[in-house]
Amino acid sequence: MEKILVVGATGTTGNKVINELNNQDNFEPVAMVRKEEQQLKFQKQGIQTVLADLSEDVTHVTKGIDKVIFAAGSKGKALETVDRKGAMKIVDASKKHKVHKLVMLSSIGADAPQQSDKLQDYLQAKNDADEYLANSGLDFTIVRPGTLNDEVPTGKIRLATSLDNKKGSIPRGDVAKVLVQSLKDTIARREVFEILNGEQQIDKALDTVASIR
C-alpha cells in the first residue's frame, strides 16, 4: 500500500482527495495540517497526519511518503507563501526523500498568466510552481482544471493537453478523482493536462494520457 501525502488536506478539494484516497485499497492518505485540532479531526477518522505549515520548514513531511498530491491554495490571500513558495518547498522535500511521483493541482490559464486581467498574479504563482516541478527531475502530473464548483460530481470530464475551449467549470469531487487516479505511474508521466466538466468517463479520459513505461 502506498502512502500518499495530501498537502492542503483541510481545504474543500483536499478533503475530497482524502476521502477518495480512503476509499481506495492501494492508497493510504496522510493529511498535512497546520493545527493540532485539525490533526485530531483526521485521527478520529483513522487517517494519519503530519503537522506542518507551508510558510515554515516542511522538509520532514515527505519522510516515509511514496507519493504526494499538492492541493493547497490560499484563494489569493497568500500567493507567494502558499501557492508559489509553498509548492516549491514540497517539491524540494519530495526530492530529498525520493518521492516516486508528485501530482500538482494547478489551474487552466497557468500556462499564459499574462492573458488574464483579474487572475494574473494567481496564475503566475501557479505557473512558477508548475515550472519548478517540471524542472525538478521528479516524476509528476500537473492537472489544470477550470473553475472549481461544489456541484454533485458527474464522473465525466473533458481532457486535453490544451483544451480548445477553456471556459467552464468542474465539480471538486471530479477533480479529486482525477488527482487520485493520476497517482498511477502510467498516467501522464511528466505531463500536463487540462480538464473541465464533460461527457467522457474519467477513466477513459485518463487513458488518453496513459503512458507505457
Question: Can you walk me through this structure?
Answer:
- The structure is a single chain.
- Helices cover 32% and strands 24% of the residues.
- The chain has a single domain, classed as Rossmann fold, CATH 3.40.50.720.
- Helix 1 packs across helix 5.
- It is of the alpha/beta class and 213 residues long.
- The chain contains six helices and eleven strands.
- Helix 1 links the parallel strand 1 and strand 2.
- The mean pLDDT is 94.
- The radius of gyration is 16 Å and the shape is globular.
- The chain has a nine-stranded mixed β-sheet with strand order 3-2-1-4-5-6-10-8-11, sandwiched between helices.
Write the layout of secondary structure elements.
Elements: E1 2-7, H1 12-22, E2 27-33, H2 36-44, E3 48-51, E4 67-70, H3 79-96, E5 101-105, H4 120-134, E6 140-145, E7 147-149, E8 156-160, E9 169-171, H5 172-181, E10 191-197, E11 200-201, H6 202-207
Q: CATH homologous superfamily, by name?
A: NAD(P)-binding Rossmann-like Domain
Low-confidence segments, ≥5 residues, pLDDT <50? none
CA distance, first residue to last residue: 20 Å
Under the CATH scheme, the architecture is 3-Layer(aba) Sandwich
Q: Report the count of strand segments.
A: 11
Decide which structural class fits the backbone: alpha/beta
Q: Name the strands of the widest sheet in spatial order.
A: 3-2-1-4-5-6-10-8-11
Looking at CATH, which topology would you report?
A: Rossmann fold
Proportion of helical residues: 25-40%
**Oligomer, anyone?**
single chain
Whole-number mean pLDDT = 94
Instruction: Tell me the radius of gyration.
Output: 16 Å
N-to-C order of helices and strands: EHEHEEHEHEEEEHEEH
Largest sheet: 9 strands, mixed
Domain NAD(P)-binding: 8-185
Pfam family, one: NAD_binding_10
